[in-house]
Amino acid sequence: MNLSSDQLILWQYGFFHVNETILTTWLLMLGMTIAAMLVTRKLSTDGYVSRWQCVLEIIVLSVAKQIEEVGLPNPQKYIGFLGTLFLLIATASICTVLPGYNPPTGSLSTTIALALCVFVAIPVFGIERIGLSAYLKSYLEPTAIMLPFNIISEVSRTLALAVRLFGNMMSGTMIIAILLTITPFIFPLAMTLLGLLTGMVQAYIFSILATVYITAAVQLHEPTHST
Predict the structure, then answer these.
(1) What residues contact residue 38 under an 8 Å CB cut-off, 6+ apart?
(2) Helix, strand, coil proportions of the chain in percent (round to 5)?
(3) Is the alpha carbon torsion for 16, 12, 167, 61 positive or negative?
(4) Nearest 5°: phi and psi at 223?
(5) What DSSP letter does each residue of 63-102 carry, written as one string?
(6) Is-contact 5 20, C-beta < 8 A?
(7) Which of these, 102, 110, 164, 203, could form a disulfide with 90 (CB 3.0-4.6 Å)?
(8) Residue 224: CB partners within 8 Å, gap ≥ 6?
(9) Rounded to the nearest 10 degrees, what angle do helices 188-215 and 51-70 cross at?
(10) Which of these, 139, 119, 101, 137, lies nearest to 25 by C-alpha position?
C-alpha cells in the first residue's frame, strides 16, 4: 500500500524520474487551466450569465473578501497568487473521490514546493510595496542583533507551513487507508467525505496563513518614521 504518491515511480532515466506526485500535479494544473479558459472565454456583464461564470464570480469574490479581511488592501493584486494556491489544494482534495487517486498534497515534496512559493512571494510583494532598501532594513529592526532571528523566523515559518499541510493531509490519507483495509465495506463513503472536508479546510488554512505572511511583509515591514 502506497500512502504517498512519491513512492510510485512511473518513469526513470538515470537520476531523473517521474513519480505519481509529479504526474497528478501537472494534470491538476492542466485541468484547472483548461477549465479556466472554458469558463472565461464567454464572460458576460449583462443579460444571461452562465452557471459556471456565477460559480467563478462567487469564488473570486469570496477569496477577495477573505484577503481584504485579513488586512491586505487592493486584494485584486494578490488574488491571482493566493486564489490559485487555494484552488490547487482544494481541487487536489476534491479529486480524492476518484478511485486509486492519491492527492499530491499528501506528499512532502508538494507541500514544500507550495511553501517555497509563499516564501518567494513574501519578499516579492513586500519589495513591490515598500521598496528593496526599506524591506531589507526591516530585518534589522528594532536592532541589528535581530538580523539572524528575523531570518530564522522567515525560514522556520515556511517549513512549518509545509509540514502543517503535509501532516494534516497525510494523516487523513493514512486513517482512510487503514480503515478501508480493516473494514472495506463499512467506512468508504464516510471516510471519503471526511477526507474531502479535511482537504477543503487545509486549503483554506494554507491560503489564510499565506495571506497573513504577505500582509506582514507589506504592512508590518513598512519603515517607521520618527516625528
Answers:
(1) 52
(2) 75, 5, 20
(3) positive
(4) -65, 140
(5) HHHHHHHHT-SSGGGTHHHHHHHHHHHHHHHHGGGSTT--
(6) yes
(7) 203
(8) none
(9) 50
(10) 101
Q: Per-residue confidence of the chain (227 residues) as pLDDT tens digits?
A: 455 667 777 777 877 888 888 888 999 999 999 998 988 888 877 777 788 888 888 999 999 999 888 888 888 889 999 999 999 988 888 887 777 777 888 787 888 888 888 888 888 888 888 888 888 887 887 778 878 887 888 888 777 877 777 766 666 665 555 555 665 555 566 666 666 777 788 888 888 888 888 888 787 555 454 44
Cβ-contact 191, 179 below 8 angstroms: yes
Q: How far is CA 197 from CA 93, 94, 172, 188, in A?
A: 8, 9, 10, 14
Count of other CB atoms within 10 angstroms of residue 88: 22
Cell numbers linked to 155:
525560514
16: left (phi over 0), alpha (psi -120 to 50) or beta: beta
Query: pTM of the entire structure?
Result: 0.77
Instruction: Determine the residue type at 79.
Output: I
How many whole angstroms separate alpha carbon 210 and alpha carbon 67?
Answer: 10
- Beta bridge partner(s), residue 17: 12
Q: What value, to the nearest 5°, has the Cα angle with vertex 202 and ends 200 and 207?
A: 100
Grid coordinates belonging to 118: 509563499
